[in-house]
Amino acid sequence: MDFTIALILLQDGIVNGAIYALLGMALVLVFTVTRVIFIPQGEFVAFGALTLAMLVNGRVPGTAYLLPLLGAVVLVLEIVRAARSGSWSPLPKVVLTCVAVPLALLWLTLGYAGEGNSLWLNMLLTLALIVPMGPMVYRIVYQPLAEASVLVLLIVSVAVHFALTGLALVFFGAEGWRTPAFISGQINIGPATWSAQSLFVVGTCVLLIVALWLFFDKTLYGRALRATAVNRRGARLVGISTSMSGSLTFTLAVAIGAMSGMLIAPITTVYYDTGFLIGLKGFVGAIIGGLGSYPVAAAGAVLVGVLESFSSFWASAYKEVIVFTLIIPVLVWRSFGSHHADDEE
Questions:
Q1: For 109-134, how does the pLDDT look when each residue is reduced to its tens digit (9 = 90+)?
Q2: Separation between Cα atoms, residue 172 and residue 51, nearest integer Å
Q3: pLDDT, tens digit, for every residue of 251-295?
Q4: How far apart are CA 169 and CA 56, in angstroms?
Q5: Which of 69, 167, 185, 210 is most buried, taking the most CB atoms under 10 A from its CB?
Q6: Contact call for residues 142 and 36 (beta carbons, < 8 A)
Q7: What is the mean pLDDT of residues 213-235?
Q8: Which helix (H) or strand (E) holds 235?
Q9: Is residue 11 within 8 Å of 234, Cβ to Cβ?
Q10: Per-domain boundaries in the chain
Q11: Alpha carbons 215 and 26: distance in angstroms, whole number
C-alpha cells in the first residue's frame, strides 16, 4: 500500500463513516428517549434509497402505498382507544394526518412519477413519503409497550425489522437500484483528489449533525427530548408528554435514515435488505458511545467507516467480521467501569 492508496481508502472510510455517524446518533437518540434499540433503522435507509431510485426511473415507489396502509392501522387503533376511553376529540387530527395526508401524497405521487423530473424534487417527495412513517410505527408498535423492559422492546424491534424487510421485498422487489450523483466533478484538497459527490455526502452529514445540535440546544421541543432522555419520570411530572417525545424521536430517526439512504444511493447499489448491515454498522458506533454520548457515537462511527475501508483492502472477505468484532473489546472495556443499575421505572 502506498500513500495514494491510503488516501483513497481514508476518503472512502470518511464518507462511509459520516453515514454511520448519522445513523449512530439516531440510534442513541431513540434509545435515550424511549429505551428502544431501534434495529429497523436500517430499513428506512433502504426505503429512502429505493424510493428515490424508483422516482428517478419514473416508477411509483411502494412507499406511496405503504404510507396509507400504516395510516389506516393507526386510525383503527385510535378508534379502539377512543371507544374504550370515551374521548373522541383527537380523531379528526388522526384522520387528517394518518388518512388524508397519506392519500393526498399517493395521489400526488401517481400524477407526478415520470422520467426527467428534478432530482431535488424527487428527494423532497421521498422525504414526504417516508418521514411520516416514523410516528406511525411508534404508535402501532412501541407506544403500547412504552413501559415494557428494554429486553421486550429489543425483541419487538427484531420483529419490526423482519416485518419491514418483508414489506420492502413486496413493494420494491429483489433487484438493486442506484441513482445519479447529486454533484459531478473532482476537487483537489491538498494531496488528495475528492469527488464532488463524496464531499457533498460528508458536508450534508455535517450540516445535519449541526442542525441536530441546534435543535436540541435551542428549541423547546429539543429541550423536552433532552429532559425525557435524562429523566423520563421527571419529564412527565413537569408536563412533558412521553408519547409526544416518542413520536418526535421516531420522526427524527426515520428522517435521518431516509436522508442517509438518499446519500448512499449514488455510491452503491441498494437492495431491499441492504439497510440492515448499514444500520448495524451505525449501531457499532452507537455502542462505542455507550448508547448515551452523541459525540463519542459519531467518532466511533467514523472509526468504523475507516476500519471497514482499510479492511476491505487488506482482507475484503473478512471486512464485516473485523468491523463487528470491534464490539467485543469495547463492551469488555466498558464492563470494567460500569455497574448494574435497575431500570428507572
A1: 998 887 888 888 999 999 999 999 99
A2: 8
A3: 999 999 999 888 888 888 888 888 888 888 887 877 776 666 667
A4: 19
A5: 167
A6: yes
A7: 78
A8: helix 232-237
A9: no
A10: 3-337
A11: 13
Which grid coordinates are listed for 17?
463513516
The candidate with the shortest Cα–Cα distance to 260, out of 46, 79, 76, 113, is 46
Report d(CA 131, CA 135) in Å as an integer: 8
CA distance linking residue 282 with residue 250, whole number of Å: 16
* The C-alpha cell that represents 79 in the structure block: 378508534
Predicted confidence at residue 18, as pLDDT, reads 83
Residue holding cell 415494557?
A: 148
Kind and range of the H or E element at 155? Answer: helix 150-172
Which residue carries 482482507 as its cell?
Answer: 315
| b/e sequence 199-209, b meaning 16+ C-beta within 10 Å | bbbbebbeebb
Q: How many CB atoms lie within 10 A of CB 100?
A: 13
Provide CATH code, domain 3-337.
1.10.3470
Where on the phi/psi map is residue 116: left (φ > 0), alpha (ψ -120 to 50), or beta?
left
CA distance 309 to 299: 15
Query: How far, CA to CA in Å, does 212 sit from each of 259, 282, 296?
Result: 13, 17, 15
Q: Kindly report the number of other CB atoms within 10 A of residue 81's CB atom.
A: 16
Q: Is the dihedral of CA 103, 171, 246, 84 positive or negative?
A: positive
